[in-house]
Specification:
alpha+beta, Endonuclease III, domain 1, five-stranded antiparallel β-sheet, 15 helices
Length: 317
């Protein structure tokens, strides 16, 4: 087995770009939010330290392998979208992010930042790639959402270009907007997706071009455009622009666990709601999402609450 974690087959070498970041960079921390569960068919981390992503870019499907070599990062890409992915490699790894502007106001946050100097906020430049799985995560357990994403991408996407697509456990590129729009209702149900979430995704892909244009907007303007689509609210828009824009202030509201985690870490209040959480994060205005991520990374969290939504197997209905 080669170092990349995929068997050597008759696949042409990919395009290569080497980039040297300024300061510390932790690939796992930066790219981890893009992974939708351990079985995500569009994301894989291999034993040699590489991170692989399969994406649907404006230029077409592409596969990107990223690996750190000392102070440098080497990106290798395949497929029609490979050049697009390499061009945006620095932003994907946080070059547009400026962690130095962040000033910790609490000991727990300062300690987490000290322990995690390689944390940067990724910017993918792709909206639907983060929007659709975020819609799937609405009002269900993460396991249900990850399963739906995995099944739908494998059933209706295409194999990733390059070696990732021809391995024994291939990676997949998510479906194009038109393909999402043509998924029959029974396939949504088989994947455990209720009519409400499926309808939201269908409405979004019908205006996919307009939503992807939001990449060129400021995060708040992009969120406003996303929320024009019925079924997309503040929770979903924040989860999307955190990834597509690298938005440092897009704190997630409406989450079952986050207010209690922030409340516990900053005030010993495990029953904090969104209002309390936002008040506690006021000292981090402009950087509230980064502060929340550092709190999550601190390990100073209360025991998780049981999910309020009962798990229902839509496929059996």
């Amino acid at each position: 087995m080669p170092a990349g974690g995929f068997p050597r087959q008759a696949v042409a070498p990919g395009m290569v770009r080497v980039w040297k970041p300024e300061g510390a960079l932790d690939l796992g921390l930066v790219l981890g939010p893009l992974r939708r569960g351990p079985g995500d068919p569009t994301f894989r981390a291999t034993p040699d330290g590489s991170v692989w992503r399969a994406s649907l870019t404006p230029a077409g499907p592409g596969t990107l392998r990223v690996r750190a070599y000392g102070a440098e990062v080497r990106g290798e890409a395949w497929g029609p979208g490979g050049e697009w992915l390499l061009e945006r490699l620095p932003e994907l790894l946080g070059s547009a992010d400026d962690p130095a502007v962040f000033v910790p106001r609490h000991r727990v946050v300062a300690a987490a930042r000290h322990r995690r100097p390689g944390l940067r906020l990724t910017r993918t430049g792709l909206v639907l790639e983060s929007l659709i799985p975020s819609v799937l995560e609405q009002k269900v357990t993460t396991d249900e959402a990850y399963r739906a994403w995995r099944l739908l991408v494998r059933r209706f996407g295409e194999r990733a270009p390059g070696p990732a697509g021809v391995s024994e456990r291939p990676m997949w590129v998510m479906p194009a907007p038109r393909t999402w729009a043509l998924i029959p209702s029974w396939e949504w149900h088989k994947a455990g997706v209720d009519d409400k979430r499926a309808a939201t995704i269908l409405r979004a892909v019908r205006v996919a071009a307009r939503l992807e244009e939001a990449v060129g907007m400021a995060p708040e303007a992009a969120r406003a455009r996303l929320e024009v689509v019925p079924g997309i609210g503040p929770w979903t828009s924040a989860e999307t622009v955190q990834r597509s824009h690298g938005a440092p202030d897009a704190v997630t509201v409406g989450d079952l666990h986050l207010p209690g985690i922030v409340g516990w870490a900053l005030a010993g209040d495990r029953h904090a709601d969104d209002e309390v959480m936002l008040r506690l994060l006021e000292p981090y205005a402009g950087q509230r999402h980064r502060a929340a991520r550092l709190i999550l990374l601190s390990g100073n969290t209360p025991a998780r609450r049981a999910p309020k939504m009962r798990r229902v197997d839509i496929g059996r209905l």
